[in-house]
Amino acid sequence: MYRITGKTVLATGVVEMTIEAPRVAKAHKPGQFLMVMNREDSERVPLTIADSNPEKGEVTIVFLEVGRSTIELGEEFQVGDDLFAVLGPLGTPTHLDRVGTVVVIGGGLGVAPIYPICKGLREAGNRVVTIIGYRRKDLMFWDDKLRSASDELIVTTDDGSFGMKGFVSDALKKLHDEGRPMDRVVAIGPPIMMRAVAEMTRPWEVPTTVSLNTIMIDGTGMCGGCRVGIGDETRFVCVDGPDFDGHKVHWDEMFARMKVYQREEREAIASSPSCRLYFETLKR
Amino acid sequence: MSETVDIAALGGVKEGEKKRPRSKDRRLEIACQSVEARLKNFDEVALGYSPAEAVAEAMRCLECPKPRCVVACPVHIDIPTFIGHISRGHFVEAAEDIRKYNNLPAVCGRVCPQENLCEAACIINDTNPNNPIAIGRLERFSADWQFGHSERRADSVAKAPATGYKVAVIGSGPAGLSCSADLAKMGHTVHLFEALHKAGGVLMYGIPEFRLPKTIVQKEVEYVQALGVQLECNVVVGRTMPVKEVLDEFDALFVASGAGYPNMMGIPGENLNGVYSANEFLTRVNLMKAWKSEVGTPIRKPRRVVVVGAGFTAFDVVRISLRLGAEEARIVYRRSREEMPGRGEEIEHALEEGAIFTLLTNPVRYIGDDNGFVKAVEVQKMELGEPDSSGRRRPVPVPDSNYIIECDTVVVSIGQTPNVLIPSNLPGLATRWGSVIKVNRETYMSTVPKVFAGGDAITGAATVILATRAGREAARSIDGYVRDPNRGWYPPAV
Ligand SMILES: Cc1cc2nc3c(=O)[nH]c(=O)nc-3n(C[C@H](O)[C@H](O)[C@H](O)COP(=O)(O)OP(=O)(O)OC[C@H]3O[C@@H](n4cnc5c(N)ncnc54)[C@H](O)[C@@H]3O)c2cc1C
Ligand code: SF4
Ligand code: FES
Predict the structure, then answer these.
(1) What is the mean pLDDT of residues B316-320?
(2) What is the structure's pLDDT at B1?
(3) CA neighbor of B88 nearest in space, from B11, B3, B146
(4) Whole-number Å distance between alpha carbons of A94 and A77
(5) Where does A2-90 sit in CATH, by number?
(6) What's the whole-number average pLDDT of chain B?
(7) Cβ-contact B246, B426 below 8 angstroms
């Protein structure tokens, strides 16, 4: 069960993996995520589903090797290995109604999860303008996939080594300054980027959906560890989200809650041999 | 491989002899790990009776012809009979007899609130106050003995011939396990779906190792599987599979999804770091084993802990905190000691281990530091007023009584309600308060044909034994339903 059927290193530390999980592949809708456990003693890690193939019974995830579990998954697991658990699809799917023109923004790793969203929005009859941003050219991945799923694609790099120099939010501002139609914005990526986008679109009054990636334990609505303030309410990201109205998210609370386990995570990385090895290779 | 028991040496009743009950004796205490030792580990606190102790305790039982304990037991275990077996050295038979009524004796013997049930009703209380037969400990003894001394082989269980009917059970807590086991014995094909990666429900993620070892729970799960039940973990019905798909594929559905949604108070500061729901704290520690250093899931080591509430959950949290090395672990409860719903033995153990009780006190807000971590809780004193609908006196705030308790961890343990996922994905399913599934109390059928429900999902957070009973009674009713050619005669839910 849950056999790894494909693995590609897309860029340094960015890994694409396909996993056999027939039920998840069959039920998956854009915007949903899954939880992975490498081994019986591993933590449960939430990862957005970047693609699914119900016929083959496979799902695709793209992850960044940042913490102990993702480094172990990327470094120790190969095609043919089995994962202990894969649970999904979780969360409420992204709304894909027809609104006109949707600007879909993917920053860094966020490029992967927007792929099914772009496809879905387009199938629903929207014009999809996609902005994807990376730090540098050598960290780029899936730009071709996104091009095929969008009506228009804009690529930014922080250092200008490819496409437009700057952040995704700069590209968004440019579109707005040019007076281009924009009926809705969907932004997925690092929380800093999502907040920047949400703050930018607030005065324009363009509905903006963001996808939150809080800490999670079960992912089924049982523990409340993923809770975050949305407007006047506390919501559970794993069941009520991960999509929320970016203008209503309590970003300061969200940022604070992401840091709860920073110290423990550092200790975990220090105690894991494959993590140490990974960081040594990175340095070289 | 049943071991022969030398009953004479153990002081029990020999073959052909009459029992002379020693009901005047004191109830036999159970050996426990010392407080110092147990605070340094997560091993079980109560060590269990030795055979000699079990026989001695069993010898106190009068084996009443009209036993009150049986009436008080929610599943009416034939208590005098199983205790009679123990006093005669027939330990495996004792366990087998209990299993006729209760699918989870090793679990219930450990976690039932016996002091409010069978043991409260025991007639010996009348003549020898506070010394009822230790029914729970004897139940545990016989079940543990059976695990250790006989191959409890599922293939030797009398199973009805296959009926060809397929039943889906959602949730593998005590209700789901018990229902699945009985349905399998009745000859039905049973598919048991569990959302988490381990079966057992609260028995796995909620109740800590030191009260209920997880190997015991897994033995029960394995037994249910050996009966032929197909267990599939990592399936959230309503997400991984639409409820409709399950309905189409099976002849009946038993919803045993428990009460897993954590209640919070909605007071300021509840989303600060270091403020947990009991479920998060317990899941990290029990299911994910965060107390072991080698596992992946972390837990911030608490130093000064405030636990809000005084039920089963609160005591588990406070005792876990002490084992994680907390210097101060405090129960803050808005009523008084008498109203505490927790299990007596647990309250005792928590006190022995150094838990502090701050009673008639309620939090009003949590105060954070500059980094968003909780550093204190502002509480308010309470006094007891008129009784409320539960019959307990309602706590009312004392004006101008607020003060501050410093802490770095808060665990809100004020109860759980059922999750809305299944009700919201099953059109026509009637609920109370939006999530508690309404069923007919005799048939366990909901307002949707084919759909039955039981356990915490229909009552809100209750007890293991009530969930186990619901599973068993629902199995009987489901059996009647699937075999009925009309499948229409079931009184709908009320
Ligand atoms: C910390 C704690 C301590 C307790 N201590 C005691 C005690 O000492 N004595 C006692 O008698 N009672 C105790 N209780 C209460 C007791 O555990 C519960 O009443 C009992 O477990 C309820 O059983 P259940 O089968 O209805 O549900 P649960 O045990 O809650 O099991 C429900 C299962 O269903 C699964 N599930 C939910 N939704 C879905 C879905 N959509 N798809 C698939 N699976 C799903 C859940 O993951 C879970 O595994 C305690 C409870 C807690 C929280
Ligand atoms: S199941 Fe619970 S109430 Fe019934 S006899 Fe056993 S301990 Fe007592
Ligand atoms: S991760 Fe536990 S409730 Fe969301």
Answers:
(1) 95
(2) 42
(3) B11
(4) 30
(5) 2.40.30.10
(6) 91
(7) no
For B300, the closest of A218, A264, A268 (CB atoms) is: A264
Question: Considering every ligand atom, which ligand is closest to the CA of A45?
Answer: 3
Residues in chain A: 284
Decide if B494 is inside a domain. no
B118 CA closest ligand 2 atom index: 8
| % of chain B beyond a pLDDT of 70 | 97
Q: What is the pLDDT of residue B493?
A: 55
pLDDT number for residue B152: 66
Tens of pLDDT, residue by residue over A119-140, are 999 999 999 999 999 999 989 9
User: Judging by DSSP bridges, how do beta strands A4-11 and A243-245 pair with one another?
Assistant: unpaired
The alpha-carbon gap from B40 to the nearest alpha carbon of chain A, in Å, equals 21
CB of B162 within 8 A of CB of B189? yes
Domain limit, last residue, from B100, B123, B152: B152
Residue B259, CA atoms < 13 Å, CB-side half-sphere: 25
Q: Where exactly are the structural domains of chain A?
A: 2-90, 101-258
Indicate if B381 and B424 belong to the same structural domain.
no
Closest Cβ–Cβ partner in A23, A224, A268 for B279: A224
Query: How high is the pLDDT of residue A53?
Result: 95
pLDDT of residue A273: 72
Residue B135 CA to ligand 1 center (angstroms) comes to: 23
B96 domain residue, yes or no = yes
User: To which H or E segment does residue A277 belong?
Assistant: helix A273-283
Domain contains B187: yes
Let me know: does A35 contact A60? Beta carbons within 8 Å.
Answer: no
Give the pTM. 0.92
Q: d(Cα B156, Cα B161) in Å, to the nearest integer? A: 14
For B360, the token pair is: 């008639």
Chain B partners within 8 Å of A258 (Cβ): none
Q: Are residues B171 and B147 in the same domain?
A: no
CATH number of the domain where residue B431 is located = 3.50.50.60
Per the structure, the count of domains in chain B is: 3
Residues B268 and B406 occupy one common structural domain:
yes
User: Is residue B367 located within the same domain as residue B340?
Assistant: yes
For residue B11, give the 3-state DSSP assignment: coil
CB-CB neighbours of B344 under 10 Å: 13
Q: Tell me what pLDDT residue B15 has.
A: 84
pLDDT band of residue B494 (cuts 50, 70, 90) is: low
Please indicate, yes or no, whether residues B274 and B383 belong to a single structural domain of this protein: yes
Residues B181 and B82 in one domain: no
Residues B223 and B277 in one domain: no
pLDDT at residue B10, as a whole number: 87
Name which of B202, B214, B237, B240 to mutate to probe chain A: the one with the most chain A Cβ atoms within 10 A of its Cβ: B240
Range of the structural domain that residue B104 is part of: 7-34+44-152
Taking only the tens place, the pLDDT of each residue in B222-238 is 989 999 999 999 999 99
The secondary structure of residue B492, as a DSSP letter, is P
Closest-lying ligand 1 atom to the alpha carbon of residue B202: 29
Place of tokens 């057992």: B200
Strand partners, B192: B169, B231
Question: Would you say the CB of residue B467 lies under 6 angstroms from ligand 2?
Answer: no
Asked whether the beta carbons of residue A41 and residue B295 sit closer than 8 angstroms, the reply is: yes
Last residue of a domain, one of B128, B152, B176: B152
CATH number of A101-258: 3.40.50.80
Q: Please name which ligand lies nearest the alpha carbon of B312.
A: 1
Tell me which residue has its CA closest to atom 41 in ligand 1: B237
Q: What is the pLDDT of residues A13-34, one digit of tens each?
A: 899 999 999 999 999 999 999 9
| C-alpha torsion angle, residues B284, B289, B294, B298 (rounded to 10) | 10
Does residue B2 lie in a domain region?
A: no
- Tell me what the mean pLDDT of segment A132-155 comes to: 93
CA gap B310, B293 in Å, rounded: 29
pLDDT digits (tens, 9 = 90+) for A230-276: 999 999 999 999 999 999 999 998 888 888 777 777 777 777 777 77
